[in-house]
Amino acid sequence: MKEPDPSSPLTLKDIARQAGVSLATVDRVLHNRPGVRPDTVRRVREAIERNSFQPHVAAAELARGRARRFAFVMPSGPNPFMQQIESYLGEMTGWLSARRLAVEIVATDVFDASVLAASLEALIGGDYDGVAVVALDHPSVRAAVNDLVDAGTKVVTLVSDVPSSRRNHYIGIDNIAAGRTAGALVGRLVGPRTGASPGKVAIVAGSQGLRDHAERIFGFNQVISAEFSHLEVLPVLEGRDEDERSQQMLARLFSKHADIVGLYNVGAGTQGVAKALGDSGREKQVVFVGHDVTVLTRKLLLQGVMDAAISQNPGHEARAAVRVLLSLARGEPILIEQEKIRIDIVMRDNLP
Hints:
Blueprint: H1 12-19, H2 23-30, H3 38-50, H4 55-64, E1 68-75, H5 80-90, H6 93-98, E2 101-108, H7 113-121, E3 130-133, H8 139-150, E4 154-158, E5 169-171, H9 175-194, E6 199-205, H10 211-227, E7 231-233, E8 237-238, H11 243-256, E9 260-265, H12 270-279, E10 287-291, H13 295-303, E11 308-311, H14 314-330, H15 336-339, E12 344-346
Parallel strand pairs: 1-2, 1-3, 3-4, 4-5, 6-7, 6-8, 6-9, 9-10, 10-11
Antiparallel strand pairs: 11-12
Protein backbone atom coordinates (compact mmCIF):
# COMPACT_ATOMS: atom_id res chain seq x y z
CA MET A 1 0.00 0.00 0.00
CA LYS A 2 1.38 3.37 -1.02
CA GLU A 3 2.18 5.67 1.90
CA PRO A 4 0.15 8.93 1.91
CA ASP A 5 2.03 12.04 0.88
CA PRO A 6 2.24 14.30 3.98
CA SER A 7 2.29 17.36 1.72
CA SER A 8 -1.08 16.45 0.11
CA PRO A 9 -4.02 18.24 1.77
CA LEU A 10 -6.85 16.19 3.26
CA THR A 11 -10.10 17.02 1.43
CA LEU A 12 -13.82 16.62 1.98
CA LYS A 13 -13.68 13.75 -0.52
CA ASP A 14 -11.22 11.96 1.78
CA ILE A 15 -13.58 12.41 4.75
CA ALA A 16 -16.52 11.17 2.65
CA ARG A 17 -14.57 8.08 1.55
CA GLN A 18 -13.50 7.25 5.13
CA ALA A 19 -17.06 7.66 6.41
CA GLY A 20 -18.53 5.70 3.48
CA VAL A 21 -20.89 8.49 2.41
CA SER A 22 -21.32 10.97 -0.40
CA LEU A 23 -19.68 14.39 -0.56
CA ALA A 24 -23.14 15.96 -0.31
CA THR A 25 -23.78 14.09 2.95
CA VAL A 26 -20.53 15.38 4.46
CA ASP A 27 -21.56 18.91 3.46
CA ARG A 28 -24.94 18.45 5.18
CA VAL A 29 -23.28 17.26 8.39
CA LEU A 30 -20.78 20.11 8.40
CA HIS A 31 -23.58 22.66 8.04
CA ASN A 32 -25.99 20.87 10.42
CA ARG A 33 -28.62 20.43 7.71
CA PRO A 34 -31.49 17.99 8.26
CA GLY A 35 -32.06 14.74 6.41
CA VAL A 36 -29.03 12.74 7.64
CA ARG A 37 -29.48 9.67 9.84
CA PRO A 38 -27.87 9.86 13.33
CA ASP A 39 -25.59 6.89 12.61
CA THR A 40 -24.34 8.58 9.44
CA VAL A 41 -23.74 11.86 11.31
CA ARG A 42 -21.74 9.91 13.88
CA ARG A 43 -19.52 8.24 11.21
CA VAL A 44 -18.82 11.56 9.49
CA ARG A 45 -17.97 13.33 12.74
CA GLU A 46 -15.72 10.45 13.82
CA ALA A 47 -13.81 10.70 10.51
CA ILE A 48 -13.45 14.47 10.97
CA GLU A 49 -12.23 14.08 14.57
CA ARG A 50 -9.89 11.19 13.74
CA ASN A 51 -8.10 13.33 11.16
CA SER A 52 -8.37 16.62 13.11
CA PHE A 53 -9.90 17.96 9.89
CA GLN A 54 -10.81 21.63 9.73
CA PRO A 55 -12.20 22.61 6.31
CA HIS A 56 -11.38 26.30 6.62
CA VAL A 57 -7.80 25.50 7.70
CA ALA A 58 -7.33 23.06 4.84
CA ALA A 59 -8.65 25.60 2.34
CA ALA A 60 -6.37 28.33 3.67
CA GLU A 61 -3.29 26.11 3.53
CA LEU A 62 -4.17 24.91 0.03
CA ALA A 63 -4.41 28.52 -1.11
CA ARG A 64 -0.77 29.04 -0.14
CA GLY A 65 0.25 26.86 -3.07
CA ARG A 66 3.18 25.30 -1.16
CA ALA A 67 3.47 22.89 1.72
CA ARG A 68 5.31 24.04 4.79
CA ARG A 69 8.36 21.94 5.68
CA PHE A 70 9.55 21.25 9.21
CA ALA A 71 12.75 19.37 10.10
CA PHE A 72 13.15 17.48 13.37
CA VAL A 73 16.85 17.10 14.25
CA MET A 74 16.91 13.99 16.43
CA PRO A 75 19.60 11.82 18.06
CA SER A 76 20.92 8.95 15.97
CA GLY A 77 21.13 5.63 17.77
CA PRO A 78 18.65 3.51 19.74
CA ASN A 79 17.20 5.97 22.26
CA PRO A 80 13.72 4.55 23.12
CA PHE A 81 12.23 7.88 24.25
CA MET A 82 13.36 9.72 21.11
CA GLN A 83 12.07 6.84 19.00
CA GLN A 84 8.69 7.29 20.70
CA ILE A 85 8.64 10.96 19.67
CA GLU A 86 9.43 10.01 16.07
CA SER A 87 6.71 7.35 16.14
CA TYR A 88 4.12 9.86 17.32
CA LEU A 89 5.15 12.24 14.54
CA GLY A 90 4.48 9.40 12.11
CA GLU A 91 0.96 9.00 13.53
CA MET A 92 0.13 12.64 12.76
CA THR A 93 -0.12 12.10 9.00
CA GLY A 94 -3.79 13.08 8.71
CA TRP A 95 -3.38 16.18 10.87
CA LEU A 96 -0.28 17.24 8.95
CA SER A 97 -1.87 16.62 5.56
CA ALA A 98 -4.89 18.77 6.39
CA ARG A 99 -2.51 21.67 7.02
CA ARG A 100 -0.17 21.02 4.09
CA LEU A 101 2.73 20.24 6.40
CA ALA A 102 5.66 17.93 5.71
CA VAL A 103 7.83 16.74 8.63
CA GLU A 104 11.28 15.31 7.95
CA ILE A 105 13.54 13.55 10.47
CA VAL A 106 17.25 14.45 10.43
CA ALA A 107 19.25 11.96 12.52
CA THR A 108 22.59 13.15 13.86
CA ASP A 109 25.02 12.80 16.76
CA VAL A 110 23.63 15.30 19.26
CA PHE A 111 26.48 14.55 21.68
CA ASP A 112 29.08 15.96 19.28
CA ALA A 113 28.75 19.74 19.11
CA SER A 114 30.56 20.09 15.77
CA VAL A 115 28.44 17.37 14.13
CA LEU A 116 25.18 18.78 15.48
CA ALA A 117 26.13 22.33 14.46
CA ALA A 118 26.99 21.12 10.94
CA SER A 119 23.64 19.34 10.69
CA LEU A 120 21.82 22.55 11.63
CA GLU A 121 23.90 24.69 9.26
CA ALA A 122 23.06 22.28 6.43
CA LEU A 123 19.38 23.15 6.85
CA ILE A 124 19.95 26.84 6.06
CA GLY A 125 18.70 27.57 2.58
CA GLY A 126 16.90 24.25 2.48
CA ASP A 127 13.48 25.90 2.29
CA TYR A 128 12.48 24.81 5.80
CA ASP A 129 9.85 26.90 7.56
CA GLY A 130 10.70 25.46 10.97
CA VAL A 131 13.24 23.29 12.79
CA ALA A 132 12.87 21.37 16.06
CA VAL A 133 16.18 20.24 17.55
CA VAL A 134 17.29 18.13 20.50
CA ALA A 135 20.07 20.54 21.34
CA LEU A 136 23.47 20.44 22.97
CA ASP A 137 24.24 23.60 24.96
CA HIS A 138 27.48 24.55 23.22
CA PRO A 139 28.72 27.77 21.55
CA SER A 140 28.87 26.20 18.07
CA VAL A 141 25.35 24.83 18.39
CA ARG A 142 24.14 28.16 19.74
CA ALA A 143 25.67 29.92 16.72
CA ALA A 144 24.05 27.46 14.30
CA VAL A 145 20.64 28.00 15.91
CA ASN A 146 21.10 31.76 15.64
CA ASP A 147 22.10 31.44 11.97
CA LEU A 148 18.92 29.50 11.24
CA VAL A 149 16.79 32.12 12.98
CA ASP A 150 18.59 34.92 11.13
CA ALA A 151 17.83 33.13 7.86
CA GLY A 152 14.12 33.31 8.66
CA THR A 153 13.58 29.78 9.98
CA LYS A 154 11.54 29.30 13.15
CA VAL A 155 13.47 27.17 15.67
CA VAL A 156 12.24 25.33 18.74
CA THR A 157 14.42 23.27 21.06
CA LEU A 158 12.98 19.89 21.99
CA VAL A 159 13.61 18.07 25.31
CA SER A 160 17.00 19.82 25.76
CA ASP A 161 17.28 23.61 25.53
CA VAL A 162 19.83 26.24 24.48
CA PRO A 163 18.33 29.19 26.38
CA SER A 164 21.09 31.65 25.49
CA SER A 165 20.39 31.21 21.78
CA ARG A 166 17.72 33.09 19.83
CA ARG A 167 15.55 29.99 19.47
CA ASN A 168 11.86 30.86 19.37
CA HIS A 169 10.53 28.42 21.95
CA TYR A 170 11.41 25.44 24.15
CA ILE A 171 9.31 22.26 24.24
CA GLY A 172 10.01 20.09 27.28
CA ILE A 173 9.74 19.69 31.01
CA ASP A 174 11.32 21.79 33.74
CA ASN A 175 14.44 19.65 34.03
CA ILE A 176 15.67 21.19 37.30
CA ALA A 177 12.33 20.25 38.86
CA ALA A 178 12.64 16.76 37.36
CA GLY A 179 16.09 16.35 38.92
CA ARG A 180 14.84 17.60 42.28
CA THR A 181 12.01 15.06 42.08
CA ALA A 182 14.51 12.28 41.40
CA GLY A 183 16.65 13.44 44.34
CA ALA A 184 13.67 13.43 46.69
CA LEU A 185 12.67 9.94 45.56
CA VAL A 186 16.18 8.49 45.95
CA GLY A 187 16.71 10.14 49.34
CA ARG A 188 13.37 9.04 50.77
CA LEU A 189 13.42 5.52 49.33
CA VAL A 190 16.99 4.90 50.50
CA GLY A 191 15.93 5.77 54.06
CA PRO A 192 13.76 2.71 54.78
CA ARG A 193 16.49 0.42 53.45
CA THR A 194 19.48 1.91 55.23
CA GLY A 195 18.08 4.20 57.93
CA ALA A 196 20.23 7.30 58.26
CA SER A 197 23.42 5.37 57.58
CA PRO A 198 25.93 6.99 55.24
CA GLY A 199 26.01 5.70 51.70
CA LYS A 200 26.90 6.70 48.18
CA VAL A 201 24.76 7.58 45.16
CA ALA A 202 25.83 6.99 41.55
CA ILE A 203 24.71 9.18 38.65
CA VAL A 204 24.81 8.10 34.99
CA ALA A 205 24.13 10.77 32.35
CA GLY A 206 24.35 10.91 28.59
CA SER A 207 26.36 14.13 28.62
CA GLN A 208 26.50 17.12 30.92
CA GLY A 209 26.70 19.19 27.74
CA LEU A 210 23.03 18.40 27.15
CA ARG A 211 21.14 21.11 28.98
CA ASP A 212 18.39 18.75 30.15
CA HIS A 213 20.93 16.34 31.67
CA ALA A 214 22.94 19.14 33.31
CA GLU A 215 19.81 20.70 34.81
CA ARG A 216 18.54 17.36 36.12
CA ILE A 217 21.87 16.72 37.83
CA PHE A 218 21.83 20.23 39.30
CA GLY A 219 18.33 19.73 40.73
CA PHE A 220 19.20 16.26 42.04
CA ASN A 221 22.30 17.54 43.86
CA GLN A 222 20.33 20.45 45.34
CA VAL A 223 17.91 18.12 47.11
CA ILE A 224 20.48 15.51 48.20
CA SER A 225 22.84 18.10 49.71
CA ALA A 226 20.05 20.03 51.45
CA GLU A 227 17.89 17.18 52.73
CA PHE A 228 19.96 13.98 52.67
CA SER A 229 23.46 15.13 53.56
CA HIS A 230 24.38 11.67 54.88
CA LEU A 231 24.44 10.51 51.24
CA GLU A 232 27.55 11.13 49.14
CA VAL A 233 26.98 11.76 45.45
CA LEU A 234 29.76 10.27 43.34
CA PRO A 235 31.18 12.02 40.24
CA VAL A 236 28.87 11.81 37.23
CA LEU A 237 29.48 9.07 34.65
CA GLU A 238 28.85 10.10 31.03
CA GLY A 239 27.62 7.13 29.00
CA ARG A 240 26.39 9.05 25.90
CA ASP A 241 23.05 7.25 26.35
CA GLU A 242 24.75 4.06 25.09
CA ASP A 243 23.94 0.74 26.77
CA GLU A 244 27.39 -0.87 26.54
CA ARG A 245 29.30 2.23 27.56
CA SER A 246 26.98 2.90 30.50
CA GLN A 247 27.21 -0.73 31.64
CA GLN A 248 31.01 -0.80 31.58
CA MET A 249 31.42 2.49 33.43
CA LEU A 250 28.88 1.59 36.09
CA ALA A 251 30.32 -1.92 36.55
CA ARG A 252 33.70 -0.41 37.34
CA LEU A 253 32.06 1.98 39.80
CA PHE A 254 30.25 -0.85 41.60
CA SER A 255 33.52 -2.77 41.92
CA LYS A 256 35.16 0.22 43.63
CA HIS A 257 32.30 1.20 45.96
CA ALA A 258 30.54 -1.50 47.97
CA ASP A 259 28.43 1.14 49.77
CA ILE A 260 26.44 2.48 46.80
CA VAL A 261 22.82 2.70 47.98
CA GLY A 262 21.25 4.86 45.27
CA LEU A 263 21.42 5.17 41.49
CA TYR A 264 20.07 7.94 39.25
CA ASN A 265 20.04 7.35 35.50
CA VAL A 266 19.60 10.82 33.99
CA GLY A 267 19.01 9.84 30.36
CA ALA A 268 18.92 6.67 28.25
CA GLY A 269 21.33 3.69 28.23
CA THR A 270 18.91 2.11 30.70
CA GLN A 271 19.49 -1.47 29.57
CA GLY A 272 23.21 -1.17 30.26
CA VAL A 273 22.61 0.50 33.60
CA ALA A 274 20.18 -2.24 34.66
CA LYS A 275 22.59 -4.99 33.56
CA ALA A 276 25.46 -3.51 35.56
CA LEU A 277 23.17 -3.28 38.58
CA GLY A 278 22.03 -6.88 38.14
CA ASP A 279 25.57 -8.17 37.64
CA SER A 280 26.59 -6.52 40.91
CA GLY A 281 23.94 -8.56 42.73
CA ARG A 282 22.61 -5.45 44.42
CA GLU A 283 19.45 -4.75 42.42
CA LYS A 284 17.31 -5.28 45.54
CA GLN A 285 19.51 -3.12 47.77
CA VAL A 286 20.16 -0.11 45.50
CA VAL A 287 17.36 2.41 44.92
CA PHE A 288 17.18 2.96 41.15
CA VAL A 289 15.40 5.99 39.68
CA GLY A 290 15.45 6.86 35.98
CA HIS A 291 13.46 8.61 33.28
CA ASP A 292 10.62 7.86 30.86
CA VAL A 293 8.19 4.99 30.46
CA THR A 294 9.39 2.66 27.71
CA VAL A 295 9.03 -1.08 27.11
CA LEU A 296 12.26 -1.61 29.08
CA THR A 297 11.57 0.70 32.02
CA ARG A 298 8.08 -0.77 32.32
CA LYS A 299 9.64 -4.25 32.62
CA LEU A 300 12.22 -3.06 35.17
CA LEU A 301 9.52 -1.38 37.26
CA LEU A 302 7.40 -4.53 37.26
CA GLN A 303 10.40 -6.64 38.26
CA GLY A 304 11.22 -4.31 41.15
CA VAL A 305 14.67 -3.53 39.71
CA MET A 306 13.72 0.07 39.02
CA ASP A 307 11.89 1.96 41.78
CA ALA A 308 10.51 4.95 39.86
CA ALA A 309 10.59 6.69 36.50
CA ILE A 310 10.32 10.44 36.02
CA SER A 311 8.09 10.58 32.97
CA GLN A 312 7.21 13.09 30.27
CA ASN A 313 4.68 12.42 27.52
CA PRO A 314 6.46 11.88 24.16
CA GLY A 315 3.21 12.16 22.22
CA HIS A 316 2.49 15.53 23.81
CA GLU A 317 6.01 16.71 22.99
CA ALA A 318 5.71 15.64 19.33
CA ARG A 319 2.33 17.36 18.91
CA ALA A 320 3.40 20.46 20.85
CA ALA A 321 6.55 20.91 18.74
CA VAL A 322 4.56 20.77 15.48
CA ARG A 323 1.78 23.02 16.79
CA VAL A 324 4.25 25.62 18.09
CA LEU A 325 6.23 25.63 14.84
CA LEU A 326 2.99 26.05 12.90
CA SER A 327 1.84 28.92 15.12
CA LEU A 328 5.23 30.61 14.71
CA ALA A 329 5.15 30.16 10.94
CA ARG A 330 1.64 31.63 10.76
CA GLY A 331 2.42 34.44 13.18
CA GLU A 332 -0.29 33.20 15.56
CA PRO A 333 -0.12 33.19 19.37
CA ILE A 334 1.16 30.05 21.12
CA LEU A 335 -1.24 28.46 23.59
CA ILE A 336 1.24 28.19 26.45
CA GLU A 337 -0.92 26.10 28.79
CA GLN A 338 -1.74 23.62 26.02
CA GLU A 339 1.94 23.12 25.20
CA LYS A 340 3.23 22.86 28.78
CA ILE A 341 4.81 19.44 29.34
CA ARG A 342 4.08 17.89 32.74
CA ILE A 343 6.38 15.86 34.99
CA ASP A 344 4.89 12.56 36.14
CA ILE A 345 6.17 10.07 38.71
CA VAL A 346 5.53 6.50 37.57
CA MET A 347 6.04 3.49 39.84
CA ARG A 348 5.08 -0.16 39.55
CA ASP A 349 1.69 0.47 41.12
CA ASN A 350 0.55 3.24 38.76
CA LEU A 351 2.02 2.13 35.44
CA PRO A 352 -0.09 3.56 32.59
